[in-house]
Amino acid sequence: MEQLTKEQFIKDFKAQLHTDYLVDNNEATAEEHFRTLGKLIKRYVMSDWLRRRDEIVKEQKKTAYYFSIEFLPGKMLQTNLLNLGIYDLVTEALADINVDLTVLVEAERDMALGNGGLGRLASCFMDSLPTIGAPGFGNGIRYKYGLFKQRIVNGYQVELPDAWLPSEGSVWETKKPHSAVDVKIYGSVYLAPQEDGALKPIYENVKTLHAVPYDVIQIGFNNGVVNNLRLWDVELPEKYELDYQTLADRRRVEDITSFLYPDDSSRDGQAMRLIQEYFMVSAGLQTIVASYAKMQLPMAKIHEKVAVHINDTHPAMAVPELMRILMDDYGVKWDDAWATTTQVMSYTNHTVLSEALEKWDTGLFKEIVPRIHQIIGEIDRKFVKEWAGKVDTGIIDRTRIVQNNQIHMANLAIIGGHSVNGVAKLHTELLIEDVLKEFYVLFPEKFNNKTNGIAQRRWSQIANPGMSALLDDLIGKGWRSNIHELSELEELLTRSDVQTSFYQVKQANKQKLADYVKKTLDIDLPIDAIFDVQVKRLHAYKRQLLNVMHIIKLYQDLKDDPGLEMTPRVFIFGAKAAPGYHFAKSVIKIINELANLINYDTSLNDKLKVVFLENYNVSLAELIVPAADVSEQISTAGKEASGTSNMKFMMNGALTLATLDGANIEIKDAVGEDNIVIFGMDKDAVYAHYDKHDYNSRAIYDSDPTIKRVVDAFIDGTIPNTHYEGHEIWDALISYNDEYFLLEDFTDYAEKQAYISELYQDKPIWQAKVIKNIANSGRFSSDDTIEGYAKDIWGII
Ligand code: CR1
């Protein structure tokens, strides 16, 4: 953008307010101020945005498209101001006219088009791609309702729709009706032989959806690059309106882009999800191929200009859909189409949990996407033929796409692409050795690792201005554009004035969080206590319950001996449970009731507090992460693919209490064993139990009185109002043999927690470790991660 002055900005701001709302600055609401500023930002970047679009076509730049069913950007105002380089100027200019930027920040709604780590990673990548100057665009769905809004009522999670999208649309998007495309679903298709011997698909009784793109600006950091996140919305095509005569028909179409992950327990719900996936994939690919066609290069070489990334399995239909477009719309022959498709496509796996490896009933495919069903059948047939006789038939049976009338989406993504990556070293190893080992036999060259990263600007400069200012003082401002300069802190670890400054920043951040807790929950948090935080989706493998068991132990210890010397602790949780996930919801109830029990027990003398913050989302994370002293990363080893909050906490000076899982291992390698607290079984120990079937939680329970007492607290009335949930949990731990090995890891966990309490008392040692963590956090920048993708996988830089 052009050089901006304060005066010019104020003039623009006032004029925009007049144009859009017919109000003067002093009359406008926070919402109007926010939207006005958003519009101005968009106006300021418009020339960069257009230039980007044009140069890609003119210079025929190879471009990557990141297909993802989830994007979780949170709020964009501060990021956009920061990346544009006008954060300070705008803050001051607004202050001059009595407008407080923080109030505008509050007025923006979180854009929560995702569940958790996977969607947030996609958004960190959207920030990093323009920042490293790479032509990489997002492709997803413009849901009207994002992830549900969580309220806690009587300790239970209640899910409310999150209508994040204002009726005027998001201020960051631009609707582009002229780029709309039609997507066909349902009906039937047969192949009619043509004179030249080719087969032409003839469709009958199809339903046509009108896909309209909304382009959301993605601004690079201080470099004039603006990329695009394209979100698709559905509209009823006027031309085909006779297909949708009743209101119910119309609603059903509108629903396609209404919700993120519609409930798929019914066949109808499954159909809706499948349509969503196809809708986004088809609309995205049709436009991508059309813009490639404008370059007038051979269709069979599209991989030289286009890379498509399949983020988790949801967009895996990109493989057959690109085949369809190339063959049916552009007349490319199968072999050529296949050769180029496999070079266009690449896939990231985000979890070893088998429930997340999507499988679809072939009947549903046949009904909803009949042509795709045909093409998948053919890909599968050719795959089997190609490998027959070369490898064991068992391997073919287990790696083929269609098995027992089910379509295996991960298999489709792996077979149909040239790259498969995991998201942390251990995770990639597990894919190779275990989860996808038979694919590794077939395609060893496809496998690679790309450890996750975070958009450090949001998680330091925006979320933690106090720490950022301190860093500026200590090592200069260079770290703001080159995060690796944080390593200069290594020289300062033991300087007591530096330690004190970091401590003061942390205490101020803790106070800010404490104020929020006071306001929302009316609980007083002592900020001299250790703030011990576990925020992430609620899942059995993430073991929030292990954390709960430890809190119960501390509670019991304090009840036994109220005079017990103990470093005060505040345990903070934030977690949403999937609406249908019963066990996870029971854990939420337990945490809330335990919190009630503890927080109002005056005999504990404020040594223990427990807080469950409702509706954990990106914005709340920005408040919580900078206030943490301890970061809980305690999943069963081998289960957490990477984790990314672990990186955010580390960057903000929390010490990690962790199992050797996911990226925790790489954090340990970065800071050294002395600067992280590791406990519990490693992946080999976990796998040894799987192999030998020798885990016996009841034996541990019977032989360890401390554990027995903690576990019994779930059913002996210790925690009020949890009769039902307590029994469910007790059963999971004892009757069902504790699937995630909480009991085996408990003792070590509790010991390491006690060690942390002791350590915290020694401020110089604690602070040195804190600074060591910040100093080494630069390697977890998503700028570096995305550079790996851009170079090794997509070949776009
Ligand atoms: C993993 O559980 C990882 C993110 C991003 C999640 C988490 O460990 O950090 O992906 N996986 O890679 C997921 O959401 C559906 O799978």
Rg over CA atoms, rounded to whole Å, is 27 Å
Mean pLDDT: 97
Rounded to the nearest angstrom, the distance between the terminal CA atoms is 23 Å
Percentage of residues in helical conformation: 40-55%
CATH class of the domain at 63-70 and 115-143 and 220-235 and 243-452 and 786-794: Alpha Beta
Please, what is the CATH homologous superfamily of the domain at 63-70 and 115-143 and 220-235 and 243-452 and 786-794? Glycogen Phosphorylase B
Give a short account of the largest sheet. Answer: 10 strands, mixed
- Sum up the overall morphology in one term: globular
Bound molecules: N-(methoxycarbonyl)-beta-D-glucopyranosylamine
- Strand content is 15-25%
CATH architecture of the domain at 63-70 and 115-143 and 220-235 and 243-452 and 786-794: 3-Layer(aba) Sandwich
CATH topology type of the domain at 63-70 and 115-143 and 220-235 and 243-452 and 786-794: Rossmann fold
Number of strands: 25
Mind explaining what this structure looks like?
- Among the domains are: 272 residues, Rossmann fold (3-Layer(aba) Sandwich), CATH 3.40.50.2000; 241 residues, Glycogen Phosphorylase B (Rossmann fold, 3-Layer(aba) Sandwich), CATH 3.40.50.
- The model has no long low-confidence stretch (mean pLDDT 97).
- With 797 residues, it is α/β, with parallel strands linked by helices.
- Strand 5 and strand 6 form a beta hairpin.
- The two termini are 23 Å apart.
- The site of N-(methoxycarbonyl)-beta-D-glucopyranosylamine has 16 residues, from helix 6.
- This is Alpha-1,4 glucan phosphorylase.
- InterPro entries: Glycg_phsphrylas, Glyco_trans_35, Pyridoxal_P_attach_site.
